Amino acid sequence: MGSEAYRIPKREQLVEMWVEPEGATQVYLFLLPPGSEFGEGEVPLDVLNQPDEFVVVRSIEGQVYCLNKRYIVRVRFEEPERPDAETAPRIHCVFRLHDGEEIEGTVREYLPPEHSRLIDYLNQIAGPFIRLELHDGMTLLLNKRYCVRAVPLE
User: What fold does the segment set 3-76 form as a domain?
Assistant: First the structure.
């Protein structure tokens, strides 16, 4: 029996990833397609917030390798419009990273009304990555380990 029998069908999504200490690079993340155990299919946030320490990526040149998620600072990509996007509460905020860079964006997630502050969102997300909508329409997944300060702007 060849290794093909053990292959899990995945789709690839191109992302721009900032990795310490290498910097920015474009890679493909492997995601479960719609109809899998994730129903609508996996999104990059699902993969990065899984408890596994490493994630498999493919470089633009075709090299497949394992990447330690602890060193991923942020991931930027184009995300299809989420069905809840218009009705989910918004928290406009700015994050200061460990290197002094500031990133401004909007958190748009459903939270219970009694836990709808930025601090609640940051502490309730179990995994290391949070989702921000950027002003240019792109999505940014930010590793909370690299955030020094988060300031709500509204």
Answer: SH3 type barrels. (2.30.30)
CATH of domain 90-152: 2.30.30.520
DSSP code, position 62:
S
pLDDT tens digits along 37-86: 656 788 999 999 999 999 999 999 999 999 999 999 999 999 887 666 67
Q: Using one digit for the tens of pLDDT, what is the confidence trace for 8-48?
A: 778 999 999 999 999 999 999 999 888 756 567 889 999 99
* Residue pair 151/93 in contact by the 8 Å Cβ criterion: yes
Q: Would you list the DSSP string of 116-154?
A: -SHHHHHHH--SSEEEEE-TTS-EEEEEGGGEEEEEE--
